[in-house]
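Feature request, filed as a ticket because there's no other form

It would be nice if the structure record came with a short human-readable summary line next to the tokens. Right now we just get the raw output. Example of a typical job, pasted below so the devs can see what we mean:
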Amino acid sequence: MSNPSKDLVEVEGALRVVIENLIDAQEGLQKLGDEAKSELLKQFFLSESLKRAQFRGDLETILHQEGVKDIHETGTTAGTFVRAWTSLKAKLGGTEHALLEAAEEGEVSVLEAYADAIKKDLPRPIRDVLADQVVEIGLSLEYVRAARESTK
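Raw output as currently delivered:
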């Protein structure tokens, strides 16, 4: 990195946005898993929630290695709203289709955060970690879309 302070600020900013979105995804997927009636969907959502927690941990480790000491992210305001809305829909008799729609929206949102981060001038090892995580989230999104389509 040519200018460590400028580069660190860019890396930290990009990863913090992704981490906030991963927090939203982790919590949202867990909530969906708790609300799902289908055992298969329940297991899928809870498994994906754990993967988002792992992805978050991987990115926080990178920040620690880059010298960032305090990482206290809480998710995004929009994510908090979506989780509350999803919970309300589920309590009002939300269908599996509605839960899958919420999951799809969440996965698209987190992928957008990754796309924005990958556009930044990040070191190759960090870009590689982000790219690997994008592949996993993309596979999850494909599964969610296929499951949603089958519930029409």
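Something like this underneath would help us a lot:
Residues 4-150 form a domain with the Ferritin fold (CATH 1.20.1260.10).
The radius of gyration is 16 Å.
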